C-alpha cells in the first residue's frame, strides 16, 4: 500500500473525487501507518480509528453520489488543543484528566462540515507552552527526521510538535495547529513541512483551549502550501461565538498559489540578522532572497526597529493572559481533582499535581507581571511595546508587500540537547514572535537541509488578511527549493 | 438640620458612599445565552460559557449594554462611547473561570447625579461616580451537608450594574433616601426590579467619620453586601458609632472589609487591608473594546419613559396636587399610571383624595400591590364618576368600594343591586325629616332654644332613616328650612 503515502492532500482529494481510490482505503493506510510508527513517534495522544473508519465509509457514500466537500474523505490529525465532541481533549495536561467535551470547536466543525476524516488527537506541549514538545504530560514527540549518521532523537519543535511529526511522517495528510508565538511555524520548519499562522481573527478561537487569547490563532500544517491553502479555506471564517473573529470573506486560497511574485516587493528586515545565528541559516535566507528575485520580486531592505523587544514583551503579554486563562483548571467542575481539607487546599493540591513544570513557571511569571506594583512596569509597558511592534510592521508595509526571514534560529535539536535555561529555550521563537505580537499572518515553508541533513524553513510575513500573497510567495520558494526530501521515519518507507 | 453623632469628645459627622449592585433586567446573561431569570432548579440556567469550560468564549449581550446606557441616562450621567471589559482575577468555587469580567479602567457610564428627597421637605444632590457592567458570580451553599458545599451557577454570569456614589451621603436617612430614589429610577426605566430580598439589588456601604468642619476624609470601612435599605441605615449607624469609639479612645480605624450582623446589630471584620485580594485587573483579551455610537445613545434616550422627577412636576401642574401628594403618587410608575387613568377627565381632587385615602387603605388591608389591585383604575374612575354626578354620596361610595374589593363587581352594578342610588327627591327627604322631627320634639325644642350642636344629630338621624342614601346637601338644606319653621 506504499502508494497511498505518496499522496499530498490535494492529489488525494483529486484521486478520491475521480474514484481512483476510496476514502476507506486511504484512511486504513494512514491508520496502519499510525499503528506501525506512532508507538515510536508518539505524535498521537488519542487515536480514533473506529470513528475514522465510520467517517471514511460515509465519505465514500457521499463521493459515490458525485457529491462531497473540499475535504471529503481526507484523513487529518487534530492538535489536542481543539475540543472535539465526544472525544477526549487533554491539552497534553494531566489536569484535564479524561475530559470529554460535549461540544466541537468551530475550526474542527468547519473541517467536519467539509468532509474531513479525523484520525485522532495530536500531541503538543502542555497547554501549547513549549518549543520542543518536551512538556507534554503524554511524553515527548520524536521528530521523524534524523541527523546524517546519527540515531539521536530530535525534537519536532513546539508546541504543535505532534501535528508536525504526524504530517512529516505521513501519518496524516494534514493537521490543525495553533500558533501563539510560533507554534505552527517553528515545528513546521523543524520537520520539513509547511504551516500557516493566519491573521489574528481569521480562524475562530471558539472551542480551542486558550493559552494567550490575544495571540492564539489556529492554522493548517501540511506537506506543502497547496494543502495548507485547502485546509485554511475550510478552517477560516467569521464566527459570532468568538468576539475577536473578523467578519471578512474567505477567499479561494488555493487559487492564489500560482499568482507568482512578479513586481512584488519583498522586505528583508535587518534586525533578523541575529547574533550567533548559524551561517547556513544566513545562507538559506540569502538563497530565499535570490529565488524570489529570480521570480521577478523586488527586494527591499527594511527595518523593524522594535524586533529585539519582541521576545521579552511576548513572554509578558502571553503569560499574563495565560495565568488568567488557566485559572479555570481548578478541579471543581471538570478534569482531575485532588481533594484537600479546604477549598484553597483543594486548589493547591489539584493544580500542583495537574500542571507540569513549564506551565507552572509560566503561570507564576504571568501572575507576577499583573501583580499590584508590577503591572505598570511589566504588563502595561509590554502592551505599549506591542503597539510599537505592530506599528513597525504597518510602516514597513507602506513599502513592501511581504517580509522574508528565517523561521527559526536553528534546525531541530536533539531531545537531550534541551537547554537547561528556560530563557534559552524561549529564543527559538525569536523570529516568529513579532508577527504574532502584531497579529499579521505568517507562514513557514521548507527550503533546504542543514549540513546534518535536518530541514530548515523560511518564514514569510504578510499584511493583515493578505494570506493570498503569502501563499503565492511561499509557493515560489517551494518550487525553487523543490524540497522533496523525506524524513527517516516515514509511512512510505518500509520500516 | 445636619446629622451629628455626639461622642465623648463632642460631635461627629459621618461620611458615606454606596456601591450598589443592581441586577440588569434581561432575558439572557451578560456574556452567554443562558436564561437570566431568577429561581429555577440549581444549575438549570447555565451554559458552558458560564461554567467556564475549556475553549468557551464570552459574547457581549447588546441588550445589557442598552440597559446600562438607559440607566446612565436616568442618572443624568455621562455615557462613555468607549468602554472596556477587564478581568478581575480571584479563585472561588462559585467563580468558574477564576475571574470576573467587569469594567475597571473604562466604565460605560461616568459621572452623574441623583436628587434625593428628605423628610423635612428638602432635597439633596448625591453624586454618582460611575456605573459599570459586570458579571455576577454563582452561589455557594454551605448548609446542605456537614462536609460538602454545593455550587449553584444559575446566577453566574448574570449582568450587574455597579453604581458607585460619591462620598456625599451624610446621614443614614440620606443613604436610605438615595437607595429608594435609585431603586425608583431603575424600576421606572425597567433596568432592574430593585428587589433587595431576591438579591437583585445589594449595597456595599463605605463609612468613615470626622469632626464637623474637618478637611479630608479619615480611614473608611466597607460593609459588604447589605441587602435591605433598613439594614443599610442601621449598619451606618452602628459602624459610625464603632469608629467614633475607636478614635475617641485614641486608636486608629483600620481600613477593612466588614459584615453587618442585623441580629446583633453590629459589624464584624471580614478581612483586613493586608488580606485584600490582588485582583490583577487587565483588559479581557476575549472581548473587543466596547464602542457605541452617539446616535444609538440618542435613540435610547428618546425612548426613555418619563422619569420620576419630571412626572412629579407634571402631576403637580396637570392635576393641581401638592408636592407631597405628587411624590407619593409617583413613587412607583404603576401607581402614577393608575392615578392618571383615574384622574384623567375626572375631578382630579376627588381622584387624589380617594387614591391616597380609601384606595390605598384597601390595598393595605388586602395586602395587594397596585399591579394586582382588586379594583382596576377604570373601576375606581367609574366609582368617582358616580359621586361626581350625585348618583351616590361619599359615604355610600366608601361602602361601594369595599364591596368592589370583595366581589370584583363594578361600582354601578353594586349601586343598582343594592339600591344605593342617592335620594334627591326633596319630597322623600322632607317626609323623612318630618318623621324625625316629630319623633324628637324635645330635641327640636332644645335646638330652638339655642343648642345649635343638635343640628348634626338631626342630620345623622335623617341619614340613618334614609339608609345613608340621602343627598347630604339637600338633607342639610331641608333640615334648616324645616327647623326654622
UniProtKB/TrEMBL annotation, chain A:
<comment type="function">
    <text>Allows the formation of correctly charged Gln-tRNA(Gln) through the transamidation of misacylated Glu-tRNA(Gln) in organisms which lack glutaminyl-tRNA synthetase. The reaction takes place in the presence of glutamine and ATP through an activated gamma-phospho-Glu-tRNA(Gln).</text>
</comment>
<dbReference type="InterPro" id="IPR000120">
    <property type="entry name" value="Amidase"/>
</dbReference>
<comment type="similarity">
    <text>Belongs to the amidase family. GatA subfamily.</text>
</comment>
<keyword id="KW-0067">ATP-binding</keyword>
<dbReference type="InterPro" id="IPR023631">
    <property type="entry name" value="Amidase_dom"/>
</dbReference>
<dbReference type="InterPro" id="IPR020556">
    <property type="entry name" value="Amidase_CS"/>
</dbReference>
<protein>
    <recommendedName>
        <fullName>Glutamyl-tRNA(Gln) amidotransferase subunit A</fullName>
        <ecNumber>6.3.5.7</ecNumber>
    </recommendedName>
</protein>
<feature type="active site" description="Charge relay system">
    <location>
        <position position="159"/>
    </location>
</feature>
<dbReference type="InterPro" id="IPR004412">
    <property type="entry name" value="GatA"/>
</dbReference>
<dbReference type="InterPro" id="IPR036928">
    <property type="entry name" value="AS_sf"/>
</dbReference>
<keyword id="KW-0648">Protein biosynthesis</keyword>
<keyword id="KW-0547">Nucleotide-binding</keyword>
<dbReference type="Pfam" id="PF01425">
    <property type="entry name" value="Amidase"/>
</dbReference>
<keyword id="KW-0436">Ligase</keyword>
<feature type="active site" description="Charge relay system">
    <location>
        <position position="79"/>
    </location>
</feature>
<comment type="subunit">
    <text>Heterotrimer of A, B and C subunits.</text>
</comment>
<feature type="domain" description="Amidase">
    <location>
        <begin position="25"/>
        <end position="470"/>
    </location>
</feature>
<feature type="active site" description="Acyl-ester intermediate">
    <location>
        <position position="183"/>
    </location>
</feature>
Automatic annotation (TrEMBL), chain B:
<comment type="similarity">
    <text>Belongs to the GatB/GatE family. GatB subfamily.</text>
</comment>
<dbReference type="InterPro" id="IPR017959">
    <property type="entry name" value="Asn/Gln-tRNA_amidoTrfase_suB/E"/>
</dbReference>
<keyword id="KW-0436">Ligase</keyword>
<dbReference type="InterPro" id="IPR003789">
    <property type="entry name" value="Asn/Gln_tRNA_amidoTrase-B-like"/>
</dbReference>
<keyword id="KW-0067">ATP-binding</keyword>
<protein>
    <recommendedName>
        <fullName>Aspartyl/glutamyl-tRNA(Asn/Gln) amidotransferase subunit B</fullName>
        <ecNumber>6.3.5.-</ecNumber>
    </recommendedName>
</protein>
<dbReference type="InterPro" id="IPR018027">
    <property type="entry name" value="Asn/Gln_amidotransferase"/>
</dbReference>
<comment type="subunit">
    <text>Heterotrimer of A, B and C subunits.</text>
</comment>
<comment type="function">
    <text>Allows the formation of correctly charged Asn-tRNA(Asn) or Gln-tRNA(Gln) through the transamidation of misacylated Asp-tRNA(Asn) or Glu-tRNA(Gln) in organisms which lack either or both of asparaginyl-tRNA or glutaminyl-tRNA synthetases. The reaction takes place in the presence of glutamine and ATP through an activated phospho-Asp-tRNA(Asn) or phospho-Glu-tRNA(Gln).</text>
</comment>
<dbReference type="InterPro" id="IPR014746">
    <property type="entry name" value="Gln_synth/guanido_kin_cat_dom"/>
</dbReference>
<dbReference type="InterPro" id="IPR042114">
    <property type="entry name" value="GatB_C_1"/>
</dbReference>
<keyword id="KW-0648">Protein biosynthesis</keyword>
<dbReference type="InterPro" id="IPR004413">
    <property type="entry name" value="GatB"/>
</dbReference>
<dbReference type="InterPro" id="IPR006075">
    <property type="entry name" value="Asn/Gln-tRNA_Trfase_suB/E_cat"/>
</dbReference>
<dbReference type="Pfam" id="PF02934">
    <property type="entry name" value="GatB_N"/>
</dbReference>
<feature type="domain" description="Asn/Gln amidotransferase">
    <location>
        <begin position="337"/>
        <end position="483"/>
    </location>
</feature>
<dbReference type="InterPro" id="IPR023168">
    <property type="entry name" value="GatB_Yqey_C_2"/>
</dbReference>
<dbReference type="InterPro" id="IPR017958">
    <property type="entry name" value="Gln-tRNA_amidoTrfase_suB_CS"/>
</dbReference>
<keyword id="KW-0547">Nucleotide-binding</keyword>
<dbReference type="Pfam" id="PF02637">
    <property type="entry name" value="GatB_Yqey"/>
</dbReference>
